[in-house]
Amino acid sequence: MLGKYDVIVVGAGHAGCEAANAAAKMGSKVLLITMNMNTIAQMSCNPAMGGVAKGQIIREIDALGGGSGIVSDKSAIQFRMLNRSKGPAMWSPRTQNDRVMFSLEWRYLLEQNPNVDFWQDMCVGVITEGDKVVGVQLAMGTKVYGTTVVLTNGTFLNGLIHLGEKQYGGGRAGEKAAIGLTESLVELGFVAGRMKTGTPPRIDGRSLDYSKMEVQHGDENPSKFSYGSTPALSTQLPCHITYTNERTHDLLRTGFDRSPMFNGAIKSSGPRYCPSIEDKISRFADRERHQIFVEPEGWNTVEIYVNGFSTSLPEDVQDIALKSIPGFESAKMFRPGYAIEYDYFPPTQLSHTLETKLIRNLFFAGQINGTTGYEEAACQGLMAGINAHQNAHEKPAFILSRSEAYIGVLIDDLITKGTNEPYRMFTSRAEFRILLRQDNADERLTPLGHQIGLANDEDLARVENKKKQTTLLKSKLREIGVTPAEANEMLAQKESAPITQQVKASSLITRPHISLDDLVGVSEQIRTTVESVKANDPLAVEQAEILLKYEGYIEREEEQAQKLLRLEDLKIPQELDFRQIKSLSIEAKEKLSKIQPATIGQASRVSGVSPSDISVLLIHLGR
User: Fold this and answer.
1) What is the enclosing helix (H) or strand (E) of 43?
2) Is 537 helix (H, G, I), strand (E, B) or coil?
3) pLDDT tens track for 584-611
């Protein structure tokens, strides 16, 4: 009944959808297997996309030709550019999304591609021949064969939900766990572990008093994620902010003896940067309050997501503690928060393509690799889908370096360093974050996406036009002079030193607190030049200003990136036995033998490998 496929994707969450979409757009015949066709791209946790570093990842996915940016824009209810008060390397786009629309838009996007087939069942094992995967075994007895397989199982592998002293199997609330696949992989020789995550209660918004909270509106002139033709928001829904207090904390502590976090029921590691509320008041006992974000779940629902109140305490404790928070005095709960434990596979078992080292043509993506977050999962799915397609058609691997994309940083971190707690991306993890800005993801990655057949000709033409307009505006601003009569009044208002003779506009832009908008206001020539470029491509104006203002920093990072790339170009032979290199430290021999780095650059990032060990390797390789 089911034929043979180029790519079989197991799981239809954020990673699975990106994997199926990418492989199918590139021309592979794809089967997407999910346990529930009604929960494709379900936002299991908060109804939002992007944020610090995560927004950069969504822009990168979109630049390559993925779907998350498009779907986020089409289902957005609010848009904010975070960290505007900081430098552009820190600017991070974020959308609040309609949960139901997000899922429907992803399903619609996938259904428009004739290369994608769907099948509803549980995958209980992979089928192998020697060291190569050839298909999957399904719960109803069906065997499906394919050239490559991508596993994106999320929190479903032997998922166990904790709510107070109660425990029950499940992949998320209301859905059963996936049984059998972990055991199948362990039998093949894979090492598995356990991780934990959690979610807050959902509340009836009609029962809240928003007058007691701070309102948080979206941007006045909202942007969007996708570089394509998706519309920017014209109307937005507000979020709200409130705070816990000492009484809230005291009430929460009454349930600690029944909390799986503290009574030993949960033994695995949870996300360090998104702790439960009970973990917060335990670890930060000196804090008098914690911020709570009150986030709407969509345009046409009263359901509210209580961001910052993730918990696995008993329902009665959750209820009474919530009602001590300003605005929540009469709160009605739709469902309580809970914690979930699930199986993952340490990602040091993967190569840079996300193909497993043990079984050829088998790829892992998303939370199965120990990550947390929709964005981290989506970018892994995209890369696994691309490389599964490349393998299926005997094409070269597609790998992004640490200096090319946050996606490259994430994957390199995972496979080189591994993780024993849910991995989350931050701007601080990237050495070259001035290069890896959200505004230039299209220039960095769309040409690469076009080369492999994922981004289309229209995408590439748009990027080339933006680069042309950016270069034009930079050139003009280096030519146009600004006189003291034009600029000094504005400079005085900005508390910036006056000029005594005519200077180029580009030199004033490099000053702190002086923006291109300021110069537009004082020079008619600058205004007409900027308006001409803006009419052609508004994004080019922002790009030109950033490149001029931070030119020195950008050039310095580009030099450092080139040095790193030279190390990445030094390949390590696959057959090299590190244990036979006498001058290597014992720890380096052990770690390098386990990770099997492909390049000197990757070897240098392995935990426990010192600069002197790298020198030994270079000498051994004749360098």
Assistant:
1) none
2) coil
3) 998 889 889 988 998 998 998 988 888 8
